[in-house]
Amino acid sequence: MKKGHFKLSAVCCLLFAFFLWGCGAGPGSPGSDGSEKTGVILEASLTPTYLGANTYSVDVVQQICDAGPPPEYEQFADHGATATIRARLLNPNPPIPPGTLYIEKYTVEYRRSPDSIGAPPIETDTRYTTIVITPPLSGTGVATLETSLVLVEINRKRQYYTDILSGVYTSRILNNYTALYTFEGKNQYGTDFSFKAQTDFQIGSFDYCK
User: Fold this and answer.
1) For 29-173, where are the E strands, in sequence order?
2) Could you tell me the pTM of the whole model?
3) Helix or strand or coil: residue 4?
């Protein structure tokens, strides 16, 4: 084989390996950690929710819905998210059944989208909770559970609006972010694990008057 062909093949192999690494192929890849020790691969998807409905629009301005008197204000609360967590076995025929997994906390990191780079930063949020995941005992099946989380809590919404009004950041109230969740916990044998999930959302002034 000529040197040029060998170099080209080597580059292609490296690019292919990088592609698989970036896509999260296999246990222990970015997005999950501890699968080799717990025997369970964890994945999650997120759906933002507010006032009982699915919505990616995070409201930061509590409007007056009816002047009254007395005035009727728009409902104002934490913006939540529903996490759908899926657990499958690393080995369909494990020599020892996998233990129950317990999420102990999750951290939400907020990243500004490229079109909103001048928007205010939103402080990282860490929340301690207990979420129990019971994986399959054997086979290729997937165990699924849903749980409610916080996407942007009310004080961070208020701080965002305060920052917009300060004039330090962009004066545009509507901006786009990505919320990156990191879940951490232990299985019943004390083995650490973690996994990640993310969702995009927009934040600004929205009409949630009924």
Assistant:
1) 32-33, 40-50, 53-54, 57-59, 64-66, 72-73, 79-89, 101-112, 125-133, 143-152
2) 0.83
3) helix
Contact 188, 99 (CB under 8 A): yes
Q: From the CA atom positions of the chain, what is the Rg in Å? A: 22
Higher pLDDT, 59 or 33: 59
Sign of CA dihedral 70, 72, 73, 77: positive
Distances (CA, A) of 192 to 32, 35, 45: 11, 9, 21
Residue 103 and residue 183 in contact, taking contact as beta carbons nearer than 8 Å? yes
Which tokens hold the place of 84?
């759908």
Q: What are the DSSP calls for 102-131, one per residue?
A: EEEEEEEEEEE-GGGTTSPP---EEEEEEE
> Could you tell me the two tokens for 89?
């076995």
Q: What percentage of the chain reaches a pLDDT higher than 90? A: 77
| Residues across the chain | 210
